[in-house]
Amino acid sequence: MPVLERETFASRLLTWYDQHGRHDLPWQQDRTPYRVWVSEIMLQQTQVTTVIPYFERFMARFPDVASLAEASQDEVLHLWTGLGYYARGRNLHKAAQVVMAEHDGRFPVDSLEAMAQLPGIGRSTAGAIIAQSTGQRAVILDGNVKRVLTRLQAVEGWPGRPAVERELWQLAEHYTPHDRVVDFTQAMMDLGATLCRRGQPDCPRCPFHDVCLAHASGEQRRFPESKPKKTTPLRTTRMLLLRDAGGRVLLELRPSTGLWGGLWSLPQFDNDQDLGRWLDEHAPAAERGTPQTSFTHVFSHFRLEITPVPASVEHMDSVSEGWRWYDPQTPDSVGLAAPVKKLLQTLSPFTLSPPAGP
Protein backbone atom coordinates (compact mmCIF):
# COMPACT_ATOMS: atom_id res chain seq x y z
CA MET A 1 0.00 0.00 0.00
CA PRO A 2 1.30 3.51 -0.81
CA VAL A 3 2.34 5.36 2.34
CA LEU A 4 0.79 8.67 1.17
CA GLU A 5 -2.08 9.86 -0.96
CA ARG A 6 -1.12 11.29 -4.36
CA GLU A 7 -1.95 14.90 -3.48
CA THR A 8 -0.04 14.79 -0.20
CA PHE A 9 3.00 13.20 -1.82
CA ALA A 10 3.07 15.71 -4.68
CA SER A 11 2.58 18.66 -2.33
CA ARG A 12 5.48 17.64 -0.11
CA LEU A 13 7.76 16.94 -3.06
CA LEU A 14 6.99 20.16 -4.92
CA THR A 15 7.39 22.27 -1.80
CA TRP A 16 10.86 20.78 -1.39
CA TYR A 17 11.64 21.19 -5.10
CA ASP A 18 10.64 24.85 -5.19
CA GLN A 19 13.25 25.57 -2.53
CA HIS A 20 15.97 22.99 -3.16
CA GLY A 21 15.54 21.56 -6.65
CA ARG A 22 17.64 22.24 -9.73
CA HIS A 23 16.13 24.97 -11.90
CA ASP A 24 19.02 26.14 -14.09
CA LEU A 25 20.13 23.07 -16.01
CA PRO A 26 20.79 23.78 -19.71
CA TRP A 27 17.99 21.53 -20.96
CA GLN A 28 15.51 23.28 -18.65
CA GLN A 29 15.92 26.41 -20.76
CA ASP A 30 13.98 26.59 -24.02
CA ARG A 31 12.34 23.22 -23.38
CA THR A 32 11.59 21.40 -26.60
CA PRO A 33 11.06 17.68 -27.21
CA TYR A 34 14.39 17.63 -29.05
CA ARG A 35 16.44 19.23 -26.29
CA VAL A 36 14.76 17.19 -23.56
CA TRP A 37 15.26 14.00 -25.59
CA VAL A 38 18.99 14.59 -26.07
CA SER A 39 19.45 15.37 -22.38
CA GLU A 40 17.50 12.30 -21.26
CA ILE A 41 19.58 10.00 -23.44
CA MET A 42 22.83 11.56 -22.25
CA LEU A 43 21.73 11.33 -18.61
CA GLN A 44 21.16 7.58 -18.79
CA GLN A 45 23.79 6.13 -16.43
CA THR A 46 25.74 9.41 -16.51
CA GLN A 47 25.90 12.19 -13.92
CA VAL A 48 24.56 15.68 -14.59
CA THR A 49 27.95 17.37 -14.10
CA THR A 50 29.47 15.13 -16.76
CA VAL A 51 26.61 15.61 -19.20
CA ILE A 52 26.38 19.43 -19.15
CA PRO A 53 29.44 20.24 -21.34
CA TYR A 54 28.59 17.41 -23.76
CA PHE A 55 25.01 18.65 -24.04
CA GLU A 56 26.11 22.21 -24.72
CA ARG A 57 28.60 21.16 -27.42
CA PHE A 58 25.98 18.88 -28.96
CA MET A 59 23.38 21.63 -29.10
CA ALA A 60 25.88 24.07 -30.61
CA ARG A 61 26.59 21.64 -33.45
CA PHE A 62 23.13 20.05 -33.78
CA PRO A 63 20.56 22.67 -32.72
CA ASP A 64 17.62 20.68 -34.07
CA VAL A 65 16.63 17.19 -35.09
CA ALA A 66 17.11 17.91 -38.80
CA SER A 67 20.77 18.83 -38.40
CA LEU A 68 21.37 15.72 -36.31
CA ALA A 69 19.65 13.46 -38.82
CA GLU A 70 21.73 14.87 -41.69
CA ALA A 71 25.06 14.43 -39.90
CA SER A 72 27.37 11.48 -40.38
CA GLN A 73 27.56 8.86 -37.67
CA ASP A 74 31.28 9.63 -37.36
CA GLU A 75 30.58 13.23 -36.39
CA VAL A 76 27.85 12.26 -33.92
CA LEU A 77 30.08 9.70 -32.21
CA HIS A 78 32.99 12.14 -32.20
CA LEU A 79 30.90 14.51 -30.06
CA TRP A 80 29.85 11.52 -27.93
CA THR A 81 33.42 10.32 -27.30
CA GLY A 82 34.02 10.11 -23.55
CA LEU A 83 30.37 9.75 -22.52
CA GLY A 84 30.49 5.96 -22.86
CA TYR A 85 27.67 3.54 -23.66
CA TYR A 86 28.04 4.42 -27.34
CA ALA A 87 24.90 2.57 -28.38
CA ARG A 88 23.12 5.63 -26.97
CA GLY A 89 24.82 7.87 -29.53
CA ARG A 90 24.11 5.50 -32.40
CA ASN A 91 20.46 5.20 -31.38
CA LEU A 92 20.19 8.97 -31.01
CA HIS A 93 21.33 9.35 -34.59
CA LYS A 94 18.96 6.62 -35.83
CA ALA A 95 16.01 8.09 -33.91
CA ALA A 96 16.62 11.53 -35.44
CA GLN A 97 16.48 9.99 -38.91
CA VAL A 98 13.26 8.13 -38.03
CA VAL A 99 11.67 11.33 -36.72
CA MET A 100 12.53 13.11 -39.96
CA ALA A 101 11.47 10.24 -42.24
CA GLU A 102 8.36 8.98 -40.48
CA HIS A 103 7.09 11.88 -38.35
CA ASP A 104 7.80 14.90 -40.58
CA GLY A 105 10.50 16.13 -38.24
CA ARG A 106 8.22 16.31 -35.19
CA PHE A 107 8.49 14.08 -32.14
CA PRO A 108 5.25 12.12 -31.58
CA VAL A 109 4.78 13.50 -28.06
CA ASP A 110 1.04 12.94 -28.20
CA SER A 111 1.62 9.17 -28.05
CA LEU A 112 3.63 7.39 -25.39
CA GLU A 113 3.62 4.23 -27.52
CA ALA A 114 4.98 6.02 -30.59
CA MET A 115 7.68 7.74 -28.57
CA ALA A 116 8.74 4.45 -26.96
CA GLN A 117 9.16 2.86 -30.39
CA LEU A 118 11.91 5.27 -31.41
CA PRO A 119 15.42 3.75 -31.23
CA GLY A 120 16.92 4.02 -27.76
CA ILE A 121 13.75 5.29 -26.09
CA GLY A 122 11.98 3.07 -23.57
CA ARG A 123 8.85 3.58 -21.53
CA SER A 124 10.41 5.77 -18.84
CA THR A 125 12.43 7.93 -21.24
CA ALA A 126 9.36 8.43 -23.42
CA GLY A 127 7.40 9.52 -20.35
CA ALA A 128 10.13 11.93 -19.30
CA ILE A 129 10.31 13.55 -22.74
CA ILE A 130 6.54 13.98 -22.92
CA ALA A 131 6.19 15.29 -19.38
CA GLN A 132 9.21 17.59 -19.49
CA SER A 133 8.55 19.11 -22.92
CA THR A 134 4.75 19.32 -22.99
CA GLY A 135 3.50 19.19 -19.39
CA GLN A 136 1.21 16.28 -20.22
CA ARG A 137 0.85 13.72 -17.45
CA ALA A 138 3.32 10.91 -18.09
CA VAL A 139 4.90 8.53 -15.60
CA ILE A 140 8.65 8.02 -15.28
CA LEU A 141 10.70 5.32 -13.59
CA ASP A 142 14.41 5.97 -14.08
CA GLY A 143 17.11 4.84 -11.66
CA ASN A 144 16.64 7.80 -9.32
CA VAL A 145 12.88 7.31 -9.13
CA LYS A 146 13.28 3.59 -8.53
CA ARG A 147 15.60 4.31 -5.61
CA VAL A 148 13.19 6.82 -4.04
CA LEU A 149 10.16 4.55 -4.34
CA THR A 150 12.02 1.43 -3.27
CA ARG A 151 13.15 3.09 -0.04
CA LEU A 152 9.90 4.91 0.59
CA GLN A 153 7.92 1.66 0.37
CA ALA A 154 10.72 -0.75 1.46
CA VAL A 155 10.18 -2.74 -1.74
CA GLU A 156 11.98 -6.06 -1.49
CA GLY A 157 13.93 -7.56 -4.37
CA TRP A 158 16.20 -6.32 -7.14
CA PRO A 159 14.33 -3.67 -9.21
CA GLY A 160 15.47 -5.36 -12.40
CA ARG A 161 13.22 -8.33 -11.70
CA PRO A 162 9.97 -8.06 -13.70
CA ALA A 163 7.71 -8.52 -10.66
CA VAL A 164 9.55 -5.83 -8.68
CA GLU A 165 9.57 -3.46 -11.64
CA ARG A 166 5.81 -3.91 -12.10
CA GLU A 167 5.26 -2.97 -8.46
CA LEU A 168 7.39 0.14 -8.87
CA TRP A 169 5.49 1.19 -12.00
CA GLN A 170 2.24 0.89 -10.03
CA LEU A 171 3.65 3.10 -7.29
CA ALA A 172 4.95 5.64 -9.80
CA GLU A 173 1.52 5.74 -11.43
CA HIS A 174 -0.13 6.25 -8.03
CA TYR A 175 2.09 9.15 -7.02
CA THR A 176 2.27 11.08 -10.32
CA PRO A 177 -0.13 14.07 -10.17
CA HIS A 178 -2.09 15.73 -12.95
CA ASP A 179 -0.78 19.23 -12.23
CA ARG A 180 2.76 20.65 -12.40
CA VAL A 181 3.95 17.48 -14.11
CA VAL A 182 7.07 19.19 -15.51
CA ASP A 183 8.21 20.15 -12.01
CA PHE A 184 7.09 16.86 -10.46
CA THR A 185 9.11 14.66 -12.80
CA GLN A 186 12.18 16.87 -12.40
CA ALA A 187 11.68 16.88 -8.64
CA MET A 188 11.59 13.08 -8.48
CA MET A 189 14.85 12.87 -10.40
CA ASP A 190 16.41 15.62 -8.27
CA LEU A 191 15.37 13.97 -5.02
CA GLY A 192 17.04 10.73 -6.02
CA ALA A 193 20.16 12.44 -7.32
CA THR A 194 20.76 14.91 -4.47
CA LEU A 195 19.23 13.45 -1.27
CA CYS A 196 18.15 9.85 -1.78
CA ARG A 197 21.57 8.98 -3.10
CA ARG A 198 22.82 5.46 -3.70
CA GLY A 199 25.54 5.28 -1.04
CA GLN A 200 24.91 8.08 1.44
CA PRO A 201 21.24 9.13 1.57
CA ASP A 202 20.65 12.44 3.34
CA CYS A 203 17.58 11.30 5.19
CA PRO A 204 17.21 14.22 7.67
CA ARG A 205 16.69 16.67 4.79
CA CYS A 206 14.28 14.43 2.86
CA PRO A 207 10.65 15.61 2.71
CA PHE A 208 9.55 12.01 3.30
CA HIS A 209 11.84 10.99 6.15
CA ASP A 210 8.92 10.64 8.57
CA VAL A 211 7.01 8.20 6.36
CA CYS A 212 9.85 6.37 4.60
CA LEU A 213 9.64 2.70 5.55
CA ALA A 214 13.30 1.99 4.87
CA HIS A 215 14.36 4.93 7.06
CA ALA A 216 11.99 3.85 9.82
CA SER A 217 13.69 0.46 10.00
CA GLY A 218 17.17 1.94 9.67
CA GLU A 219 17.73 -0.06 6.49
CA GLN A 220 17.78 2.69 3.89
CA ARG A 221 21.16 1.54 2.60
CA ARG A 222 19.79 -1.94 1.96
CA PHE A 223 17.30 -0.58 -0.54
CA PRO A 224 17.15 -0.94 -3.44
CA GLU A 225 18.55 -4.46 -3.36
CA SER A 226 21.57 -5.05 -5.58
CA LYS A 227 21.57 -7.19 -8.66
CA PRO A 228 22.74 -10.72 -7.84
CA LYS A 229 26.48 -10.68 -8.31
CA LYS A 230 28.26 -12.63 -11.00
CA THR A 231 31.97 -12.97 -11.49
CA THR A 232 33.10 -10.24 -13.86
CA PRO A 233 34.99 -11.99 -16.68
CA LEU A 234 38.34 -10.72 -17.91
CA ARG A 235 39.05 -10.59 -21.62
CA THR A 236 42.36 -9.72 -23.26
CA THR A 237 43.24 -8.05 -26.54
CA ARG A 238 46.27 -6.78 -28.43
CA MET A 239 45.91 -3.31 -29.96
CA LEU A 240 48.23 -2.59 -32.86
CA LEU A 241 49.77 0.91 -32.80
CA LEU A 242 50.98 0.99 -36.40
CA ARG A 243 52.50 4.32 -37.45
CA ASP A 244 53.72 5.44 -40.84
CA ALA A 245 56.63 7.68 -41.74
CA GLY A 246 54.65 10.78 -40.85
CA GLY A 247 53.59 9.52 -37.43
CA ARG A 248 50.04 8.75 -38.48
CA VAL A 249 48.28 5.82 -36.83
CA LEU A 250 46.23 3.17 -38.62
CA LEU A 251 42.63 2.87 -37.38
CA GLU A 252 39.87 0.43 -38.23
CA LEU A 253 36.12 1.03 -38.14
CA ARG A 254 34.40 -1.28 -35.67
CA PRO A 255 31.26 -3.18 -36.77
CA SER A 256 28.04 -1.24 -36.27
CA THR A 257 27.01 -3.48 -33.38
CA GLY A 258 28.92 -4.95 -30.48
CA LEU A 259 31.90 -3.55 -28.61
CA TRP A 260 32.51 0.10 -29.59
CA GLY A 261 30.09 -0.33 -32.48
CA GLY A 262 30.56 2.30 -35.19
CA LEU A 263 33.64 3.81 -33.53
CA TRP A 264 37.19 3.95 -34.84
CA SER A 265 39.67 1.82 -32.95
CA LEU A 266 43.17 0.44 -33.20
CA PRO A 267 43.26 -2.95 -34.94
CA GLN A 268 42.56 -5.60 -32.31
CA PHE A 269 43.79 -9.17 -32.09
CA ASP A 270 43.25 -12.03 -29.68
CA ASN A 271 46.94 -12.91 -29.50
CA ASP A 272 50.41 -12.08 -30.83
CA GLN A 273 50.21 -14.78 -33.48
CA ASP A 274 47.09 -13.26 -35.08
CA LEU A 275 48.66 -9.80 -34.93
CA GLY A 276 51.84 -11.11 -36.57
CA ARG A 277 49.93 -12.84 -39.35
CA TRP A 278 48.02 -9.62 -40.08
CA LEU A 279 51.26 -7.66 -40.35
CA ASP A 280 52.78 -10.32 -42.60
CA GLU A 281 49.82 -10.00 -44.95
CA HIS A 282 49.20 -6.24 -44.93
CA ALA A 283 52.50 -4.64 -43.89
CA PRO A 284 55.31 -7.17 -44.32
CA ALA A 285 57.98 -4.45 -44.05
CA ALA A 286 56.71 -3.25 -40.68
CA GLU A 287 59.01 -3.31 -37.68
CA ARG A 288 57.42 -4.42 -34.41
CA GLY A 289 58.38 -2.82 -31.14
CA THR A 290 58.20 -4.12 -27.60
CA PRO A 291 54.62 -4.45 -26.27
CA GLN A 292 53.72 -1.63 -23.90
CA THR A 293 52.41 -2.06 -20.37
CA SER A 294 48.94 -3.57 -20.33
CA PHE A 295 46.02 -1.69 -18.79
CA THR A 296 42.42 -2.58 -18.00
CA HIS A 297 39.29 -0.89 -19.32
CA VAL A 298 36.15 -1.70 -17.32
CA PHE A 299 32.77 -2.24 -18.96
CA SER A 300 29.49 -2.89 -17.18
CA HIS A 301 29.66 -6.66 -17.75
CA PHE A 302 33.35 -7.47 -18.23
CA ARG A 303 36.90 -6.13 -17.95
CA LEU A 304 39.15 -5.78 -20.98
CA GLU A 305 42.91 -6.04 -20.55
CA ILE A 306 44.53 -4.10 -23.39
CA THR A 307 48.15 -4.55 -24.47
CA PRO A 308 49.31 -1.90 -26.99
CA VAL A 309 51.82 -3.28 -29.51
CA PRO A 310 53.76 -0.55 -31.36
CA ALA A 311 54.97 -1.03 -34.93
CA SER A 312 56.21 1.23 -37.72
CA VAL A 313 56.17 1.07 -41.49
CA GLU A 314 57.52 3.31 -44.26
CA HIS A 315 54.43 2.88 -46.40
CA MET A 316 51.56 0.53 -47.11
CA ASP A 317 49.56 -0.24 -50.18
CA SER A 318 46.32 1.70 -50.43
CA VAL A 319 44.19 1.45 -47.29
CA SER A 320 40.83 -0.18 -48.03
CA GLU A 321 37.39 0.98 -46.91
CA GLY A 322 36.92 0.71 -43.17
CA TRP A 323 40.51 1.73 -42.47
CA ARG A 324 42.11 5.17 -42.22
CA TRP A 325 45.30 6.90 -41.27
CA TYR A 326 44.83 9.20 -38.29
CA ASP A 327 47.20 12.02 -37.33
CA PRO A 328 47.21 12.45 -33.52
CA GLN A 329 48.65 15.94 -33.91
CA THR A 330 45.77 17.15 -36.11
CA PRO A 331 42.92 14.85 -35.04
CA ASP A 332 39.93 14.25 -37.28
CA SER A 333 36.35 14.64 -36.08
CA VAL A 334 35.63 10.94 -35.75
CA GLY A 335 34.23 8.83 -32.92
CA LEU A 336 36.97 7.06 -31.00
CA ALA A 337 36.76 4.32 -28.40
CA ALA A 338 37.71 5.90 -25.05
CA PRO A 339 40.89 3.87 -24.37
CA VAL A 340 42.01 4.44 -27.97
CA LYS A 341 41.55 8.18 -27.63
CA LYS A 342 43.58 8.07 -24.41
CA LEU A 343 46.37 6.12 -26.10
CA LEU A 344 46.47 8.45 -29.10
CA GLN A 345 46.74 11.48 -26.83
CA THR A 346 49.92 10.06 -25.29
CA LEU A 347 51.72 9.71 -28.62
CA SER A 348 54.43 12.21 -29.43
CA PRO A 349 55.28 13.35 -32.96
CA PHE A 350 57.84 11.23 -34.76
CA THR A 351 59.09 10.24 -38.18
CA LEU A 352 60.76 7.01 -39.08
CA SER A 353 64.52 7.13 -38.92
CA PRO A 354 66.22 7.26 -42.36
CA PRO A 355 68.05 4.13 -43.42
CA ALA A 356 71.60 3.88 -42.18
CA GLY A 357 74.27 4.89 -44.73
CA PRO A 358 76.70 2.44 -46.27
UniProtKB/TrEMBL annotation:
It comes from the Bacteria. Pfam families: HhH-GPD, NUDIX_4. It catalyses: Hydrolyzes free adenine bases from 7,8-dihydro-8-oxoguanine:adenine mismatched double-stranded DNA, leaving an apurinic site. Its cofactor is [4Fe-4S] cluster. Residues 42-194 form the HhH-GPD domain. This is Adenine DNA glycosylase. Keywords: 4Fe-4S, DNA damage, DNA repair, Glycosidase, Hydrolase, Iron, Iron-sulfur, Metal-binding. CDD domains: ENDO3c, NUDIX_DNA_Glycosylase_C-MutY. It comes from Halomonas cupida. Belongs to the Nth/MutY family. Its EC number is 3.2.2.31. The keyword Cell wall biogenesis/degradation does not apply. Binds 1 [4Fe-4S] cluster. The lineage of its organism: Bacteria, Pseudomonadati, Pseudomonadota, Gammaproteobacteria, Oceanospirillales. Adenine glycosylase active on G-A mispairs. MutY also corrects error-prone DNA synthesis past GO lesions which are due to the oxidatively damaged form of guanine: 7,8-dihydro-8-oxoguanine (8-oxo-dGTP). SMART domains: ENDO3c.
